[in-house]
Design brief:
This protein has 107 residues and is an alpha+beta fold. It has five helices and three strands; from the N terminus they run E-E-E-H-H-H-H-H. The chain has one domain. The chain is 54% helix and 13% strand. Helix 4 packs across helix 5. It is globular and about 40 Å long. 25% of the residues are buried.
């Protein structure tokens, strides 16, 4: 991940794949990447998900969509017919799993 500052805007770039305006979204994207063991986004389209994400648990898919620069938590919650606070719980849980996996890998 690399931060790019232009004027008053800071963007984060994840391994040259995507550019994010929101650092929280790039961290969530990285967390999804960690939990899935990595994924490739080629040919997934604007609303699609990479196979490694689509085949994961539903909370991983929700977090992947929430991490996209063009999607909001409200949109993702509506698509999965969930209250937004439930989606936020799923995202917190995924982030905790990612942190645990990174800690185990560094040991």
């Amino acid at each position: 991940m690399r931060a790019i500052t232009t004027g008053t805007t800071t963007k984060a770039r994840w391994v040259g794949i995507k550019t994010f305006e929101n650092p929280d979204k790039v961290q969530l994207y990285a967390d999804v990447h960690t939990v899935t063991g990595g994924f490739r986004e080629e040919k997934t389209g604007e609303r699609g998900a990479p196979p490694a994400v689509a085949q994961s648990r539903e909370d991983v898919l929700m977090a992947y969509y929430a991490a996209q620069p063009t999607m909001s938590m409200q949109w993702v919650a509506a698509q999965f017919d969930l209250p937004e606070d439930r989606l936020r719980e799923y995202v917190r849980s995924l982030r905790t799993r990612a942190e645990q996996q990174r800690a185990e890998q560094s040991d």
